[in-house]
Structures are given as C-alpha cells and as structure tokens.
Write a structure and sequence with these properties.
Blueprint lengths: L8 H28 L2 E3 L5 E4 L4 E8 L8 E6 L5 E6 L2 E3 L11 E4 L7 E6 L8 E8 L4 E11 L6 E8 L2 E11 L4 E5 L5 E2 L3 E6 L5 E9 L6 E8 L4 E8 L12 H70 L1 H6 L16 E3 L5 E4 L18 E3 L8 E7 L5 E8 L16 E7 L2 E4 L5 E2 L8 E7 L4 E6 L4 E7 L6 E7 L6 E4 L8
C-alpha cells in the first residue's frame, strides 16, 4: 500500500529556491553594469606635428571592448567644439567646425578593440592646443585629454660683426619666425659649445619667437664659429658659420721701423722728382692732348659695342618669348594615352569604368590594402610608366578648388603622410584655398590671370624638364628642371569637391 505524499513538499521546494534565484539575477545585473564601465586613455605626452604636415591623435578604451556602436567624438577642449564625430556607425559632419572641414579622418581599423586614431591633414598654427577624446555607450560615457603641439623651423641664422668689445670682436646672431621657443648656441669647428656674451629670446606680435645671441671672439680664440638655432620639439636645427679674418685684429707691424727709414729717403727723392717734373711738364702737356683724342675714340667704340650688345639682348628676349608661346603647341605633338591605375587609388576616390575620370566619394570604400595604394592622401597614379622620351597629356579640372597634378617616381612613399617635393620624388602643381603653387621646397606661388579649366603636363625626360600649361589661354605655368632617375608615372590628387578630374586627349573634348 502506497504511502500518502505530504501536501507541503512542492511549496517548500519553491520557497527554498526563490532566494537563490533572486541572488543570481542581482549578480548578473551587477556583472552587466561592471562590464559596461570603461576608461578612455590618450597619449601620455603631447603629440608633435609640423606646419603643413599630418598629425595622428590616438585614443583607446580600457578594458579592451568594441566601440563600433558607440558615439566617438574629438572636441577642442577650450570650447567643446566638434573636430570630428562618429555616430551610428558612420562619420557625421553636420556639427564639425568649418576650419577642420575636409581635413580630418577617423581611422577605425581597430575600432572593434576600442582603439581609434584621428588624422588631421594640412596642420595649421590654430590646430595647436588641447583636445578631448570622448566615448559614449548606451549606459556610460568617458573622456580623455591630450595635447597637440604645432612646431616649425624659423629663418636661417643671420650673423653680423658689430665692432670691438673687451679686446675682441663682437659677433651677433639673429633668427626669427620660430613657432615655439628655440634654443640658440655658438659652436667651434669641433662642435664644442662656446660661452655666449648675451642671449635674448622674445615673442613678436604675430606670436612667433625671435632669438638674438652674441659672442666675443679674441685673436687667441677660434676665429671660425657657427651659430646654431634649434627647435627642441622637432629636434631639428638651422646653422650658419662665419670666419673672422685676422684683419679685424690690429697689431704692431715690425716693418714699421723700416717704413720710417723709407719715408725719409722718399723725402729726398721727392725733391729730385720735383726737378724732373718741371722738365717733363711740357712733354706731358703734349701727351695730354694725344690722350684726350684717344679717349674720345675709345668712348665712341665702347658706345658702339654697348648698342650692339643691347640689340643682341633684345633679339634673344624676342626669341625666348616666341619659343615660350610655341611651347604648348610643341608639347601637344607628343600626346600620350593616359589612364588611371585602380590598384593605387585611395579608398575615398571613385574611378570611371574607362579609367579616365576620378572623383571624390562621399564615403571610404573597402579596398585591398596593397603596397601600391595611397592610404593617407586622396591620390591615384596613372597606369602608364615612362622611362625616357617625351610625353604630354591634359587634365580637365573644371571648377574644382582642390587638386594636385604632375608626375612622380614609381618608388615614392604612399602610406601615411607624404612629402610632396622634388626631393621626395614628386614634380607637381597644386590649387588649394584659391592659390596656385608649384610644389617646390619652399612652395612657389604661380601668377594666374585666367583660371585654367584644363591643365597640360609635358614630360621631357631627355631635357630633364616637367612643364605645366594653362590650356585655357595657352600660357605657361611652371617648369621643373633636373635629372630624373628611374621610372616616372602620372600623378593625380583630388582633395575635395564633387566634380571629377578628367583625362582628355590633347586639344580634344572632355566628353560627357
């Protein structure tokens, strides 16, 4: 016979398990809240960048967690204005400061690990200062401060000799235009630092620093010295040397005694010479008349030579002007078929199917990060490779306000910040902020009277020249001269704007 089950067994079991269930739920909730907490960490030391260069501002979360679904913002610390904003999985530009428009890019390749980088291009003096890196999730938000220091080199030291002082020669060195407070010092030939007589560093009205340092050089000390002015932030310096001649140091000549004897003898000889002069005076008067006649003849011949030289110079000038006017017509005779190489295109660029047009996209595209691709600047190379000979092509720029055009070595650097100078392998001209420039070091302003709607590029490898023409009015813009080594390729950079850059036939239409 089965025993009777007690009626209180089920309710007793539930009552005993309820406290444990509640404790588990509280534990899980607390654990969730703990996981939602994080800390934002920035660099321990200020980030340093040069004027016109690129700055990378890093920031990451601790502990490591994904920030893809978070709001990430970079703000100027003094007024909380938006430098760059990432929200809902994409960049937001509606609230961005005008002065940073088109110059910032959020590098989020490692955002799933909570690590992001802000790239700021074309660094300006106003970019100097503190920034706030801000992360916000659905339940928490944190921020970190970091500092960007903008630095640049000033002018070459100017050395001048400013008289005698303390038995020696006082030499003064001056340099101005330094973005941050520089360090100045004197050195000898062996690089040893010499004590200075005075030092003065002051800040000008434009906020830049100037320095003045002096030294007293004696006859017994080193007479060849150099003035070195250094930027401690960039660890770069400018230096000028000077040699103080012994003529600055007066001394007693041992021949002075002999000179006194000679002067006495000269007094006797002068008396004798006076007698001879009297006898020769009449003969000289006759010779003077002959010399005046000869002088007039020489002057007449010289005037004739000057007139012939002036005529030759005017002829050469006219020939040069005529050759310059024929330069574009001659260059168009070497027209080359140029197309774009998609393997080198920056992810922000969009190429047409015929690879004749390049425009700036509204978002960064996913492309294979091969070694040939530009990842820092919005650039692309031509598919053609030139080694020797002459080539000419034209590019329609329309009303675009930000572009680079020219040639570069095939071996140029394409990752991160790129130095756009002939020394780095780039020969190009640029339109930026309404200014036309040749990318020399330093930049060369280009006077343009008629805005070019089309630019012609002529590569003459045999003559070592790259010339640029305003096809709109046929004028010559600029010519680089030098010796090219290695293979060269056409170079294009589309900084901003919606309209494309179009590769066109020489003298032909740009197409639809």
């Amino acid at each position: 016979m089965m025993g009777k089950v007690p009626s209180f067994s089920v309710s007793s079991t539930v009552s005993s398990a309820l406290p444990g269930y509640v404790a588990l739920c509280l534990t899980l909730q607390v654990h969730r809240l703990v996981l939602a907490q994080f800390t934002v960490i920035g660099p321990e030391h200020p980030v340093t960048a040069s004027l016109g260069g690129v700055a990378i501002l890093p920031c990451h979360l601790s502990p490591r967690m994904s920030a893809e679904n978070m709001e990430v913002a970079w703000l100027r610390s003094h007024d909380s204005a938006v430098v760059h904003l990432y929200r809902d999985g994409q960049d937001q530009y509606g609230e961005q400061m005008l002065e940073y428009r088109g110059r910032t890019e959020l590098l989020r390749d490692d955002i799933t690990n909570g690590r992001v980088f802000l790239r700021i291009r074309d660094i300006r003096p106003s970019d100097d200062g503190q920034y706030t890196c801000f992360f916000q999730s659905s339940v928490s938000s944190e921020a970190a401060l970091l500092e960007l220091q903008v630095a640049d080199l000033g002018s070459d030291p100017d050395i001048s000799v400013e008289g005698h002082q303390d038995g020696g020669i006082r030499v003064v060195c001056r340099s101005s235009g330094w973005n941050s407070q520089p360090e100045a010092q004197w050195r000898n030939l062996q690089g040893k630092i010499l004590p200075s007589a005075s030092e003065d560093i002051s800040q000008e009205a434009n906020g830049l620093f100037q320095t003045e340092i002096s030294i007293v050089i004696t006859e017994e000390s080193n007479q060849k010295v150099s003035c070195c002015v250094r930027n401690p932030q960039l660890d770069q310096e400018r230096e000028t040397a000077i040699l103080i001649s012994e003529l600055f140091f007066p001394r007693i000549n041992p021949w002075m005694v002999a000179l006194g004897v000679i002067l006495s003898l000269l007094a006797v000889l002068m008396a004798l010479a006076s007698y001879c002069f009297w006898r020769q005076r009449r003969a000289k008067e006759t010779l003077r008349s002959d010399k005046e006649s000869e002088k007039e003849t020489l002057l007449s011949e010289w005037e004739g030579e000057k007139e012939a030289l002036r005529s030759e110079m005017e002829k050469q000038k006219a020939e040069y002007e005529a050759a310059k006017e024929l330069g574009l017509t001659r260059a168009q005779g070497y027209a080359a078929d140029v197309t774009l190489d998609p393997d080198t295109a920056n992810p922000w660029l969009v190429l047409s199917e015929d690879r004749k047009r390049v425009s700036r996209g509204d978002k960064r595209r996913t492309r294979r990060n091969n070694p040939e691709r530009f990842d820092g600047y919005p650039c692309v190379l031509g598919a053609e490779r030139f080694a020797g000979g002459r080539r000419y092509w034209e590019v329609g720029v329309g009303d675009e306000t930000g572009w680079d055009l020219g040639v570069c070595r095939e071996s140029v650097r394409r990752k991160g910040g790129v130095t756009l100078t002939p020394e780095a392998g780039y020969w190009a001209v640029r339109l930026r902020d309404g200014r036309y420039e040749a990318l020399t070091d330093p930049r060369t302003p280009l006077p343009v009277s008629v805005r070019p709607g089309r630019v012609g590029i002529f590569l003459d490898d045999e003559a070592g020249e790259v010339s640029f023409y305003n096809v709109t009015d046929g004028s010559h813009l600029f010519t680089f001269t030098g010796t090219f080594s290695g293979t060269l390729r056409p170079y294009f950079c589309h900084w901003y704007g919606a309209a494309p850059l179009i590769i066109a036939p020489a003298g032909g239409n740009l197409g639809p």
